[in-house]
# Entry
Amino acid sequence: MSVTWILILSTVLISYSALKQASVQVKFWFNAYSVWHFKEWYRMVTHGFLHADYLHLAFNMFSLYMFGPRVEYVFKGLFGNLKGVILYLILYFGGIVLSSVYSLFKHRGNPHYNALGASGAVCSVIYSSILFFPLETLYVWGIPVKAWLYALLFLGGSWYMSKKQYDTIGHDAHFFGALWGLAFPCVVYPEILSYVHSLFFNA
# Structure
């Protein structure tokens, strides 16, 4: 079984159980105040296995199902099975943790701010996929969009919405998760930069 499927199944099982027990949600979701003042650092990771409702869970896991296997395959192809899996897990869990750092500092004085979901990790995986396949065509609401253009629009939109705070969606997590998804492959495999450059400028 692939690592992506293990992540999906474990997240579905944990999220389903937590949705049945509100006390579990409260204990393990991301609460910046509790992390900062009570040193409950585990929340930086555990919130990535919880979701607000079944639709939230389904959307994130479907996105991971669509993009995760190909990124896992690329990492294994570049680094071998063991190292590839380790790096893929660093990408995923790094997305959970690092996508919450900004919110930790932003909301550390607010005991009422809570967040949950694997969105940061999933965005990391999606953006790694876009980095490896920038000229691929994605279909957004049935509209064909080049992957690189979608990446720019999504980043810009997430940053704008995070500043306006029109809704309760964790746009900060999307934005910083996406940045991590772009940065991490460049650190572990710098050759990707010359590859992307050649696609756009040496065609």
